[in-house]
Amino acid sequence: MKLFKTLGIVFLALIAIAFTSCTTNFCSEQDIENICNQLIYNYNNDDGSIVDIYHTTPTVEQIANSKVTSEEGATWADLATAASTDEERAAAGKTLQYDYAYYIYKNNHSKACLVTSEHIDAQTGAVIESKSFGYAFKCGLLEILAYPVSWAFTTIGGWLGGTGYALMFAVLIVTFIIRALMLGATWRSTKQSQKLQALQPQLNAINAKYANRNDEGAKAARAQETMALYKKNKVNPVSSLIAPFITLPIFIATYGAVRDTALIAEGFVFNVSLGQTLGSVIMGWNVFGFVVFIIMVASQFVSMKITQWLNKKNMKGRPAGQQGGLNQQNFMTYFFIIMIVIIGWMLPLAMSLYWIFSSWFSILQAVLMNYLTKRGNKLETVR
Q1: CA atoms within 13 Å, Cβ hemisphere of 178
Q2: Cβ pair 55, 46 in contact under 8 A
Q3: Residue 82: DSSP 8-state
Q4: CA-CA distance, 160 to 261, in Å (whole number)?
Q5: How, if at all, do strands 272-273 and 127-128 pair?
Q6: Helices 349-382 & 287-314, crossing angle to 10 degrees?
Q7: Helix, coil or strand: residue 121
């Protein structure tokens, strides 16, 4: 079980690293140019009808905080009279107003520029260029992984009406499509996991047999008996952990797509943006956020325990002295749940929905596999 604990911790560490280092950004140079120019236009034509950071003319204090100029008391109009501090921008005739607009883009804009057709940015009103798969190849690996998922979100969401609720259902459909495509690998992994848990009483018996012996001979004998048990039942303990590692690139791709897809960032369900982090939704005391959080934790818990529950039911209970393996499995389950709660708190709402739908698929897969296994065993018995 030490192997499983180690691999489990490594897997969660990889998720954390992927989450914190995922720096996909589909905003092209032309997108940034359009956004900055649109911001300048918005500020110069502020009529007070829209009050936000993208339309309201910046105050002296806001300009000072941006540090685009060292001049004290500089106003928005003053920025138009000074050249940009960036040599390349200055050579192109840009002023400090452009520098300030770029500052707003860099620090406040969602940077959700992944669109499959020309799009008007909801935050600024700027035109966002259509992105192709070829563009994703020019950007990097993370963009290559994210683009197909984003395309599926956008296309299916568009078919369903293009609203926030349509995109929520698109996340459900895409999640099930992805999991169905991965079924070959995850099916084998789940089957191995079920076999491994079914063997737990026998593994505990072997461990109990050598519990009071620490000599090299006992260790070798225990390892030999364990491997013989695995071989007899055609179990590869490492195979049960293949699926989680295969899902890591899918996790990265989905996270990148959720974060960078414009329609998801602009989609709202129950007055909450699908691109907003679950933690911020809950901190805003939104009921939908609490519901999603509870369902996410419950779904993950059930998906991790379902195989154990089914095996326990099939074996009609385990002797009290054979619970050691279950205790270790419970430790891993609760450890994963805690990590999921921490990571899920920081994820966009749409990503939390993906996690929920993926858990539902895992539960259905485990139940179906258990049914087919029991049916197969009955047929073998009849023969």
Answers
A1: 28
A2: yes
A3: S
A4: 17
A5: unpaired
A6: 20
A7: coil
Sign of CA dihedral 26, 32, 34, 39: positive
- Please report the sign of the dihedral spanned by the C-alpha atoms of residue 91, residue 92, residue 93, residue 98: negative
Count Cα atoms within 13 angstroms, Cβ side, for 302: 19
Residue 68 backbone class (left: φ over 0; alpha: ψ -120 to 50; beta: rest):
alpha
The Cα 42–Cα 55 span in angstroms is 5
| Alpha carbon distances (Å) from 117 to 24, 154, 215 | 19, 10, 69
For residue 310, name the pLDDT band (cuts at 50, 70, 90): confident
Contact indicator for 286, 271 with CB cutoff of 8 Å? yes
Average pLDDT over residues 345-354: 91
* Complete DSSP assignment for 260-320: HBHHHHH-EETTEETTSBHHHHHHTT-HHHHHHHHHHHHHHHHHHHHHHHHHHHHTT---G
Output the pLDDT for position 108.
Answer: 93
What's the pLDDT score for residue 4?
47
Query: What is the spatial distance between Cα 209 and Cα 203, in angstroms, rounded to a whole number?
Result: 10
Query: What is the pLDDT confidence band of residue 93, given thresholds at 50, 70 and 90?
Result: very high
Q: Note if the pTM is more than 0.90.
A: no
CA nearest neighbour of 197 among 307, 328, 97: 307
Q: Which residues are paired to 120 by β-bridges?
A: 127
Ramachandran assignment for 56, one of left (phi > 0), alpha (psi -120 to 50 degrees), beta (any other): beta
* Residue among 135, 86, 99 nearest 114 (CA): 135
Q: Where are the alpha helices (DSSP H) in the chain?
A: 2-21, 29-44, 60-66, 76-79, 87-91, 96-108, 133-139, 141-159, 164-181, 183-198, 200-209, 216-232, 242-260, 262-266, 278-283, 287-314, 324-346, 349-382
Q: Name the β-bridge partners of 272.
A: 269
Q: Which of 121, 91, 146, 100 is nearest to 30 (CA)?
A: 121
Write the pLDDT tens digit of every residue in 187-246. Answer: 666 667 667 767 777 877 877 777 777 777 777 888 888 888 877 777 776 665 566 666
